[in-house]
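We both want to read discrete structure tokens more fluently, so let's practise on a single case. Once you have written the record down, we can walk along the chain together.
***
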Amino acid sequence: MPAHIAGTMHATPAPVWLPYPEDVNALLPSLWSENVTKDSDGVLTVAGHAVTDLARDYGTPLLVMDVEDFKSRARAYRDAYSRAFAHEQGGSGADIFYAGKAFLCTAVARWVHEAGLGLDTCSLGEMMIARAAGVPGEKVGLHGNNKSVAELEYALDYRVGRIIVDSLDEISRLESIAADRGVVAPVMLRVTVGVEAHTHDFIATAHEDQKFGLSLSSGMAAKAAEAVVGSAHLRFDGLHSHIGSQIFDISGFQVAAARVLELRAEIMRTHGVDLPEVDLGGGFGIRYTSQDTPIPVEEMAAELAEVVAKECRGLGTDVPRISIEPGRAIVSPAVFTLYEVGTVKEVHTDNGIRTYVAVDGGMSDNIRTALYDADYSCSLANRNSLAEPTIIRVVGKHCESGDIIVRDEYMGADVAPGDLVAVPGTGAYCRSLANNYNHLTRPGVLAVSTDAVEWIVTPESYAQMLSSDPGMTTLTDMEKAGK
């Protein structure tokens, strides 16, 4: 049972890592985007705009993006890796590909391109967004463990700069499509390097027993390399490795880099080809709660540059051009979700009372807690609390016991219906994984800067959600308006 200044009878079921707050109204700046603060009344503001005004004008639940924060994080990755892998440092340059699966819309694709980043896609829909945003094909990559013929055809017509091949079947499929079109497809092989990343099983992607990649240890990667080398319609540009997501330990990236570079050297020696590129993937962790300790961007870039240079010296090879694929690390801290409280309920547990705070969203707009056992923080957003801190659990309105958004956090005990609660770090995978469970509509994404507030993804209306049901042909005007 956690300690409490008033004694054990006042203790609540807090996890051991969650510190008792000195000021329950204060923000922990490292959890929020750079332009988020609170005014003297305790109202959360972003780029000078009060969330009370945003909730009144745009409704809740609402995903709010700090535009300048997003852009500055994109530039920070570009600059850090450009410096670390610069030619004067012994490198061959570096490219950043924003992982669109984290969150993608035309505005984000445009901002990424304007910042000098490439865009990593993994479906036909994501490529269509990139194209509509004006991203040149050569700045786009295509991922996926089961790319369809339509996706590969679109990628070749779009002239994407890299197709990351994931299987032997895909090599044959892509060879046939490229031959029919009379073109040469730019290919990188995704290699499963056998690194056990310290993260949730569902987001660890480099161990052997999972669906992604070509196994290094089984010889499948070497077989795939031989097939690509022998193809007249595939251009072998390099190798790709991705060990997982939300990773805080640099050693996994170091081991993966060493193994990929060793395979590169072996392929070049065996087949007499040059492989100019190596992609080390993404998965860089961010701070969702006070317990998270992400590696600073500059430090990670420098460490990776050092291990790449060291391994290439030992192998007697040139240093390839390096690319990485951050998504969450750029977009997640730039976004918070704003909810309105509807119900507050005290529940007695073996360790004390826990207060359940039910809001107007839930696993339809943030399924990560249920899916990945993810942790989030939160803050009362519309006022200061004068009450004693108490452990609260923010839950949604869906018919699932696992419909939890924030498992444990301190909030003033006077939290009540009508209050606003803000959850930081929701830019990655929340809107991308949003769903219509219980027939709730998906929230919009509001882009906020000093000079402008505008939708970059509009809220889904009931008419949109129900349009695929042939029986829903008599919606009233109110229902069409989403009310």
Observations:
- Residues 1-11, 198-207 have pLDDT under 50 and may be disordered.
